[in-house]
Protein 1
Amino acid sequence: MKRMNIAMPKSLVMIGAGVLLFGSLAWCADDHSDIDKRLDASAKVLTEIMGTPDKAIPDKVMRDAKCIAVIPSMVKIAVGFGGSHGKGVATCRTESGAWSAPAPITLTGGSWGLQLGGQAVDVVMVVTNEQGMQHLLASKFKLGADASAAAGPVGRDAGADTDWKMKAEVLTYSRARGIFAGIDLNGAAITQDKDETRLLYGKFVPFSEILNGQVHAEQGSDEFLEAVRRYSGQSREHGEVTAPSGNSQQASN
């Protein structure tokens, strides 16, 4: 009987430890699933927006982009306050001209709010020049304060004869209820999502290392990067097929 009294607590400890370990592994798996879903959602948002020629981001804007960021389903975080919060991913052109591995980001807005009743809004940002890219590489900056920002022109042929590139370091867009338009995001802060970075790459990697091309893209990033390559014109420049396909293909860099 004494042996049983001694053995039972040890068994309970082992069972408890196993439950904690299993729970921890399940939590990590769920979180990694979230970043994978965010990458897939970002690819889908960009593909759907660019698939409507008369309402897409202009080809010239995409072709000259230094960085592209997508925040799918940004939501309002405080009723009456107007603050908004969303998570997404960004990629930048490296010195070789190829697009970098994606870097998880967080976009937190201020008084601009979500104008159409508080529903989720897809946000796309295009960094237009080197100065704007350097702000993004700093891993934390504020639109309108650290970097100039403006609502971007809409329509595949729009913006070709305007001076949009001289006016803003970041062009900003939103899509809500199927309506795609430029949006003023001045006051919104962009930061590196450190927790998502650890989940995606297995450790923390600084923003600048990811966006400068010093990190290899994970397999789950293929669809997002394929969409960026396709619509930024990189595929055309490399003589690759640009039409959307059912299967994601890793474009050669």
Protein 2
Amino acid sequence: MRRNFCQLRLAITGLSVAVLACETYTVAGANSSQNSGLSTTVVIDAGHGGYDRGGIPGQEIAEKTMTLDVAQRLKDVLTANGYRIVMTRDSDVFVPLPTRVAIANSYRNAIFVCIHFNSAKRVGADGVETYFYSRESRPLASAVHYFVASGASSPNRGVRRRGYYVLRKTKNPAVLVECGFLTNPTEGRSVQSASYRQKLAEEIARGIYGRSSVVSGSSPARVATAESIPLQPYIDQTKMQNSKRSRSKRSHKRSSKKKSSSKAAGSEAKATPKEREG
């Protein structure tokens, strides 16, 4: 039997903000989590929303619409398989980054899956990529990317480690999946197909199912057996990100006549309206 309900949750973003975190789960799924030893709670975060359209100026396809559609399809797939689902947003609304993180962190032993699409001024840019930050998140990133990269009709841009706000601040295993470039004519056309968005949702779900089967020492190529998933190599972009942040801070200090306070000095202290920091 399936049940749906919403819980009122509070997150602090300077002021108290009330947010409805919508949950969907099956009674059987809630009970089976105690027997499997794996968490069956998945917090799904559809990128952008409301006034935050996503992408770049003048972009034809709204990223916020595509992310929500894939997120809702993923919810349906996982719910049908007994998972308890929490949506940071289930409609076209803007949810601040700290609130998304607060929702994710309010569920112990959950996993956090953030869904995005890429954009670029160069229309030839293409491919799918998966981001993680903490060491505990790497197996989840490897499993999700393993299936999405194999099932999507886009080049494989690999797994990357980067300190995006929602990955850095979430206490549970967390990944951010870039499901292709909406600014690429071929990928943009594919994403506008409902069957392709369903395929993306199903491949992400397969990665969630297989996250406990990730093993090191295997070839990064897709293997024939379903019992093991290779731990994916990754590109560490945290050093590059930290270098840019340091240059930005130095420039800010030179241009400011006032001493930097601990609150204002760090770009990390306050999340911007954008979904991503990069």
Protein 3
Amino acid sequence: MKMQARALRVNCSLAQKAWGKLARTSLSALRELTTAFGVSVALGDIQLIDGRWYITHAGLLRIAQRRRCHGIRSSLQKDLSNQSSNQWVFKATVYKTPGSKGFVGYGDSNPSNTSPLVRGAEMRVAETRAVNRALRKAYGIGLCSVEELGSLSAPYRSQTEPPHSIGHPRSNGSNNGQPRLRDQLCLLIRQHNLDPSLVKAYAADFCGTATLKEASRDLVESFISKLATTAKNDRDGLLCKLNSYAQPTEVKL
């Protein structure tokens, strides 16, 4: 009980450091998830996006390991896949015990429902989504997984389609299948442990606007792509760049 109480305190503390002051419903849900599944905010088991909790692939695997999952089998569904168009469908089966009949989940992926950040890796994304769905069924996890989120995908847009402002409802909504750029940016910030305020300042400067909301979708997409590449290949350089946007602290004598 003491360990569980400590885990609750740590998760709540880290969550509020990462995402700011949480709503009472979000904190309550976090407590339930910590108690039921032993998720860890520090290990990246869950993510908070638009006020909702989502489980991650890593989190699902850790839950399966703790529950002594017997095995996971995945297979490509060739009849439903098309290599020329990068359309992939996988079937995954989770066996909780040696005699289990298995819990089945399917996952699909193509260039229209994956982020440009993983372009060319559609096959791996499809397998991950299938495994995630099977694991969620097997262990009764009602949360959608981050990897399954359509809002974190960036569908192809024709070159003739006019750009939209990130502040416009169409640019950050899902009514027309457009991606939520804010979600993509927030995910990168959490993945690479970056300072959100400094990233926003850098983004506005990159886009040449006073605030990020005033930037066009195309500029924001370019910034997200640059941020992802730099964070992966030159994190130290990125941190130096971000620190240049920090406000000087007044020293009180």
Protein 4
Amino acid sequence: MAEVLSPGERLWAVDKLILTYLAFTGLLIAFFGNRLPNSKELLALHLAGAALIVLAARRKGRASWIFRHWYPLPYVASLYKEMAILIPAVRHTSADQWLARLDFRIWGANPTVWLERIQSRPLTEFLQLVYTLFVPVVLLIAWLIWKRGRYVEFRYYAFLIALGFLASYIGYLLVPARGPRFLLRDLQHTPLRGLWLFSGMQTALDRLESAHYDCFPSGHTELTILAWWSSQQISSRLFWVYFSYTLGIIFATVYLRYHYTIDLLAGALLALVLVIGAPAIYQKLSGERDRVGRN
């Protein structure tokens, strides 16, 4: 805990990552400002967010230290919401038809339609709960590492998860798609129905996600795999619990009609790339102090 009192004049790897992303999307906002509502306000928020990161890095004390560890959470959440504004302004086409055709070529059917054969209220209820718990499941690993006082490992996990989220946002921008529950709605024969909580959970998620082009790659697949891989730092038992959850959420994304299967493949491949490549990126951005795996 001695590092709480040391000056924070050095930018951490996650700071550099988020500042780079803010600069990139800030340029997009400036370039497409005439198509965006409140573009000046968005740019001001980017500048304020960047200034807060830099200011926190130059201060010392517990409040600044805690902020620097946890601020990526609200930042990546805000940047996700921004994509709902940015993508329609930058991109005027949807990749849904292309993704659905790829799925059909692979399977000889539309997976979300085919899965109606095994549809049931209890299964729908269970899988919607699995899907809804995505963010808490990813954050639980961070909390468990934090509780153990393993702050170097926490900083790497925060970097890895932030990198995963931001990489998926770039994917949304490059391949904008809303998902089969919109494109293939007229092909589905039976609406999804659960037991008690299904409608409330789906409605709450719709308010957060339905206006987004957030299918490719599947962030749920990518981030859950990253959390599963990182759970081995906690215990082997938790590793296998997360493995089971990962299989469940991958299936849930298609069963619940949120994703095409090609989205899942892209999310899994992106997770694999980050598991392999993120340590080197982190080391390059961090320097000597925060070596991956150091206790």
